[in-house]
Amino acid sequence: MAEKLWRSLEELRSLSGPDAAEFTETPLETAGGPDRRGFLKAVGFTFGASMLAGCSRTVPRIEPNLVQPEGFIPGRPVYYTSVCGGCGAACGTLVKVRDGRPIKLEGNPEHPASRGGLCAVGQASILGLYDSQRVAQPLIEGKAAGWEQADALIRSRLDEARKNGGAVRLLTASVNSPTESVWIRRFLEGFRNARHVEYDALSSSAILDAHEQTHGARILPRYRFDKADVIVSIDADFLGTWISPVEFARGYADSRNPQGSRYAWHAQVEPRMSLSGTKADQRVVLGPGEIADFVTDLAGAVRTGNSSRAVVTAIAGRLREARGRSLVVCGSQDTATQVLVNQINEALGNYGPTIETDHASRQRRGDDRALESLIEELRGGHVDVLIVAGANPAFDAPGGDAVAKAKFLAVHAERMDETASKANLICAASHTLESWGDAEPVEGTASIVQPCIRPLFQTRTLLEALAGWSGKPAAALDLVRDQWQKEIYPKAKPNLPFDRFWEKALQDGFVQYEPGARMRAAAKPREQKEPARIPRSEGFDVVLYAKTALFAGRHAYNPWLQEVPDPISKVAWDNYACLGPQAAAKLGVKTGDYVRVECGGQTLDLPALIQVGSTRRNCRDRPGLRQQTLDALRQGRA
Fold first, then answer.
1. Structural domain of residue 513, as residue ranges?
2. In terms of CB atoms within 10 Å, which of 36, 238, 585, 637 comes out highest?
3. How far is residue 268 CA from its own chain's centroid?
4. What are the tens digits of pLDDT across the range 285-319?
């Protein structure tokens, strides 16, 4: 086609007669000065030259296909199923691709966990694909390098550690990919002193530790809000940022459908106004130091039916009436408090109906104790090689600056963050939309991550990097496909040959299978530590929380998310200090005034925001008003 176009231009240029004037050079200056045509040609040339000069530096470009694939229609979008890489929830997605370029992400309505939902972070994550600040190629001591040089450097360091028995540590965020988990094990098996540490900036480690004590397995159960008739959430914003908000929001909507046969009752106990708190039928405002006492009282009231506090007695009464159809969740990071929550749910018969352990969640697997141990190793200078992948501990982990004390630090990252800036070697990471991979957010539900565009830079997935460093280099597609053929395909037991099974999984976006039953012991009372109680002191309680659009700050580079107003405060682009109306009046502070917050030796000057809902006052349950609201919803009047 291009050759035919070139011949036609040559034919036009060779024309004689009046038509040839359109393709012959005309001097700019004639005896009478520049004519109109010459002037326009000069202006056009000057503009074109300036544009070319501006594009003279090396800038990656996305070129359209010279030869279009069979069945391709320009301008008509096609859709690919994949998995959102915005957080560890791993929601199923549909990627809209037009002319070879991903342009929009939506939730996959058929996905069993997310069921068509996708949060703001997932929607905006497509901007990260085209971010000009991405690491475009490997960097050695801050200087651009090729993958051959990068691989040679890290292999030499790994070989030295293998020979001398040195400590090799791999630090990642929670890994929910079955194939990545396998290759992490294979990679570390080649060393005498190697360990994999997972952590989450928004940690749920106490829940896993509590289940290790009460149920004999360090798991994060799957919470089924869709099956609960009574929901009690204690400092857990499950509709905003807690574990898997998209999945929980879908389940919550099912349990509170005004047109359905039931409408779940929801109590929220929290120290601040959260998105979940705005939806609650009863909201109890407590300080951070009072959460442990509340859980202790609730455990006693569920067991005996009585408490010294009327609000606890009322909530416990609803839970007792809905045995096996209730759900108690807690966001506390105190293991003893979470053990009490487990015992409450066990006493109510919630394990099985509303809390699934056989289909446990893999969305947050971080271990705070393992992270603390690694930080101590780093501070002592005992780590020879530290590889950080998909995480930024220097920014979001307590004591994370210690990563710089590793004798050799390699970081697999998409952009130059706080941890990457300290690294000896930066391995450029591929974006989710240009990667092959997989994810299993819930045991028994596996999804394929498939690329929708060729890599825009010289990047690699973690899978390819680990396989190469293990001496078995392979493409990510081959690694994922082989793992699915060996592990997922036999578990799914389809009546299809593997090739057809693979194609169907790519088309559907997920595969479901029944995981092996997990043996567990009931959560019985036992000798245990008392829940941690924060002593009351003069002044204010400082409550730090994650924003629904930015989570722990991993996506702070994304201006779309910076511009998303907070669903409660309606503020965008900034940090601020929320104060209750009474506290603000006492201090004489108005919205917009700057206040100084001093906590733990840190000082921050922040603009104040007067936020209703931070006052220590119980929002009482009003059944009459609730019934009127339900009637209005069912009749379409609200």
1. 79-130+440-461+472-526
2. 238
3. 24
4. 998 889 999 999 999 999 999 999 999 999 999 99
